Amino acid sequence: MNKLDEQWLTGFFEGDGCAYVGKTTRGIVFVQKERAILEHIQSLLGVGYLKRVENPPYYSHRLGIYGKENYRELVELFGRYVVSNHSVMRLRRLADAIGLTGIRLRKHKPTMAWVVGLWDAEGSSTANHRWFHKYPSGVIETFGMKDKRLLEEVQLLIGGCFSRNGTCWNLRIGSIESRAFILQIFKHSRHETKRQKLIDDVGAIAGRMKHRLVWWRFYNDVISKETALIKGGDQH
After folding, report:
1. In whole angstroms, what is the distance from residue 154 CA to residue 151 CA?
2. I need a surface site. Which of 12, 122, 155, 201 has the fewest CB within 10 A?
3. Domain 3-97 has what CATH class?
4. How far apart are CA 186 and CA 179, in angstroms?
5. Fold that domain 112-235 belongs to in CATH
6. What is the pTM of this model?
7. Longest dimension (CA), the chain
8. Are 64 and 27 in contact (CB under 8 A)?
9. The pLDDT of residue 127
10. C-alpha–C-alpha distance, residues 80 and 103, integer Å
């Protein structure tokens, strides 16, 4: 696993992962509805137990990592890139439980690969040509989380504005500058369903708003090439 994979995995962990310590149990788990993304994480780590969790009418998939040596490796890995104080606290508690010493756990500034990992866990995209007065790009990338402080770290890196829906905070990135973030998603995202949805959203906006030449050229000259490169790499 290279550094970009490690940063991406840490971002995903802070979105849809957890390190827990109970009275008799402990573990590191990832939970997602999409099974394929957890299979990718399992292949990156080479360990883990993947199962489907039923909660009718809903379901999800759960990847559990267990074993002292696996805890040690993941605490060390996440400790190099973790961003939120909450995650630092959880990892420190697990490290103490297994007697792991000599690791300095502290929060770091987010990297773009980390942000894309968080987006793969907690992000979504929407194409809405009616909202150009508020979101000039027409494609809105959204993070939805309860932890506003974590999203504030993301905002410092890629911009965006906040809204609130009950107990959940949404960070929306919808300016023309969001094109830079879209390119980063194409480069680093491992969530095939979300990435394809983003391709479709960008294509829908480019198709409806052809008079916006900057956006149209962006889709044709950049997105199409990035998609071809990704598909070519997947075939090898």
Report:
1. 5
2. 155
3. alpha beta
4. 11
5. Endonuclease I-creI (3.10.28)
6. 0.87
7. 62
8. yes
9. 76
10. 10
